[in-house]
Write a structure and sequence with these properties.
The protein has 452 residues and is an alpha/beta fold. The protein has a single domain (52-62, 86-451), classed as Metallo-dependent phosphatases (Purple Acid Phosphatase, chain A, domain 2). The protein has 15 helices and 14 strands. The chain has helices spanning 10-18, 20-24, 27-39, 46-50, 58-61, 115-128, 147-150, 154-165, 178-183, 186-190, 251-260, 289-304, 331-339, 422-428, 437-442, and strands at residues 87-92, 103-104, 110-111, 136-139, 172-174, 223-228, 231-235, 308-312, 344-349, 356-359, 365-368, 381-387, 391-398, 403-406. The protein has a 6-stranded mixed sheet with strand order 5-4-1-12-13-14. Strand 12 (381-387) and strand 13 form a beta hairpin. Helix 6 (115-128) packs parallel to helix 8 and helix 12 packs parallel to helix 13 (331-339). It binds ligand LZXBYLUK. The ligand Nc1ccn([C@@H]2O[C@H](COP(=O)(O)OP(=O)(O)OC[C@H](O)CO)[C@@H](O)[C@H]2O)c(=O)n1 is lined by residues 10-11, 14, 105-107, 142, 146, 178, 281, 283, 326, 351-353. Belongs to the ADPRibase-Mn family. Keywords: Hydrolase, Metal-binding, Zinc.
Length: 452
């Protein structure tokens, strides 16, 4: 049985301090939170709350059906010819379900906590009737709202959404967002149905491994899988560096706290420390050097095989797709890394509920999915993506706009040995604030904002 951390929930404290939850969300349902906070630390009874959640045996909750593997095919770009996609998958973000009345968030946006469950149900119903059955769904995080922890409803809310998901016989890949970490700690999550790492592909030599240790279960929760030849999906952990979800004594907590409080501030184009980083907030997080190094190895593997890669994480990494306050702490590190790998087609994120879209200067498409939680009745926010030989077509539903991601041409020459051109390498030296070993060797001159 996973150990739990008794800790106050910053969402509850912040909400209570700012008064926005009490002011704008049913004061009756919030009363018990206030009382708990005054009498004893908020959510001190979380251990009791969580005992009823089923742990371990994830295969009972998720479909055991492995994605169908077609025979190896020769994908010729731009000569697709067929109208049929090779495969399709679903995407959804920020369901943030809670059994509580609608309310106004700290961002002055309406949140529809009960409606979000109906939206999830509707998305599943529509996915079930797609002409081409989905191979899988990417759930980009925040499946239940942090307020469940304050209400001692974390386990109940999780069971409610997992029950909905069971209504479709398609595997869900779950990402962890800030609200997962407000409800549960990482040790609990690692042993819960929200850990879908068991659907990951086997790690091959040279691709790096996910490190686990006895104190933390997973240093980071990231994995990749190939549902169809020549295509790879990588789930990254944008709360690998985070002040939530780990015990205060955990070295990663201390590293994250240092990062958040400015010891690793990013640098501006002149190489000076940039103290204006608005993304350095507790409800955001970042990528450790170990994770970036692992990702580099996976992407190198994909480059070499000319695979087309989709990366998915909770927090956006491009400033043009979100408020700057909602970016990953070291988004520049992640951007720099993916720009050095031509296999990357797009980066899918959630977190910023208004959504966003941008094709960056390196031809990488960035989509921030609109949040289900802020979708009123009569709308919704999810997508089905069809994957072809030369493009991916994101068919948005409700508030999500449809998009086409055309693949880039592969660079000439043997890019696999050195994915960075000399010019690119020169541009990005100094870009990474947490330097992985490989990056220390590769980068040679200061980063400029034009890279973004
Ligand atoms: N104006 C604000 C409002 C809130 N905060 C801080 O954000 C923390 C988390 O807020 P929450 O709305 O629960 O987080 P979500 O992940 O649901 O949404 C973030 C989305 O990006 C919004 O589109 C809260 O504890 C406050 O400290 C803030 O800094 N400024």
């Amino acid at each position: 049985m996973a150990k739990t951390v008794k800790r106050s929930n910053p969402l509850c404290l912040e909400g209570a301090r700012q008064g926005w939850v009490t002011d704008h969300i049913n004061p009756v349902s919030f009363r018990c939170i206030i009382e708990k906070r005054v009498v004893k630390p908020v959510c001190a009874s979380r251990v009791d709350c969580m005992t009823s959640v089923q742990t371990g045996n994830t295969s009972k909750v998720l479909s055991s059906k492995r994605p169908r593997m077609a025979e190896q095919i020769n994908i010729e770009e731009g000569k697709d010819g067929t109208q049929q996609p090779y495969f399709t998958f679903g995407v959804i973000a920020d369901v943030q379900y809670a059994d509580r009345p609608d309310g106004i968030s700290g961002w002055r946006t309406m949140r529809f906590y009960r409606q979000s469950l109906l939206h999830l149900r509707q998305a599943i119903d529509e996915w079930k009737t797609e002409d081409i059955p989905l191979q899988f769904v990417l759930q980009l995080g925040d499946i239940i709202d942090g307020c469940n922890a304050c209400l001692c409803q974390s386990s109940n809310a999780l069971q409610v959404v997992l029950k909905e998901i069971k209504n479709i016989d398609v595997p869900f890949h779950h990402i962890w967002g800030n609200h997962e970490l407000l409800n549960f700690d990482r040790i609990f999550l690692a042993d819960s149905p929200l850990n879908t790492m068991f659907i990951a592909d086997e790690q091959k030599p040279g691709m790096g491994t996910c490190i686990s240790n006895s104190t933390d279960c997973f240093n980071y929760y990231a994995y990749h899988f190939s549902p169809f030849p020549n295509f790879r999906f990588i789930l990254v952990d944008s709360y690998d560096l985070s002040v939530h979800g780990r015990d205060f004594s955990n070295p990663k907590y201390l590293e994250s706290s240092d990062y958040l409080h400015g010891n690793y501030q990013s640098k501006d184009s002149e190489g000076s420390k940039d103290y204006s980083s608005p993304q350095l907030k507790e409800f955001n997080g970042g990528f450790s050097s170990e994770q970036l190094s692992w990702l580099h190895n996976v992407l190198k593997f994909s480059d070499e095989r000319r695979e087309r890669v989709v990366i998915a994480g909770h927090i956006p990494i491009h400033p043009k797709t979100t408020l700057k306050t909602c970016l990953a702490w070291n988004y520049i590190d992640m951007l720099t890394l993916i720009h050095s790998h031509p296999s990357v087609v797009c980066y899918l994120a959630g977190h910023h509920h208004n959504g966003g879209y941008h094709k960056d200067s390196h031809g990488v498409y960035h989509v921030t999915m609109e949040g289900v939680i802020e979708s009123p009745a009569g709308t919704n926010a999810f997508a089905t993506v069809s994957v072809y030989g030369d493009r991916m077509v994101l068919n948005g539903r409700g508030r999500v706009k449809s998009r086409v991601f055309h693949y880039q041409k592969w660079p000439l020459g043997n890019f696999t040995k050195s994915p960075l051109s000399q010019e690119t390498a020169e541009k990005i030296r100094g870009a990474v604030t947490v330097l992985p070993t490989w990056a220390k060797k590769s980068f040679a001159t200061p980063y400029t904002q034009s890279m973004v």
